[in-house]
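Our platform keeps sequence and structure together, in a single record for each protein. This encoding replaces a full spatial description with a residue-level series of whole-number codes. We quote a single record here, exactly as it is kept in our systems:
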Amino acid sequence: MGIRLPSVIQHAIAKQVLKLQSKNQRDVPKGHVAVYVGGIEKTRFVVPISYLNHPCFLDLLNRAEEEFGFNHPMGGLTIPCDQDAFIHLTSRLHAC
């Protein structure tokens, strides 16, 4: 029997998990990819590679390709997306 958490709590938990993953590890664990998200000040997130096949995440990747091509200023994959929108998306993907 599972407990259904309100979306606000799911969002907060997902945000904390993503930030902990990105702050505690300099290396990206196997099966994950580091992405940089945000406007001028970017935050590094570590997400499972399984997210890369999801249509919503593919849309973000297409936008990144249009904006940056293959020249990512942070040295890693840069997603041109608001951090809150990215966290909302990844929390929905995490719940699947």
Notes: The helical segments are 7-24, 55-68, 83-95. The chain has a mean pLDDT of 75. Residues 19 and 45 are 6 Å apart (CA to CA). The chain is about 45% helix and 15% strand.
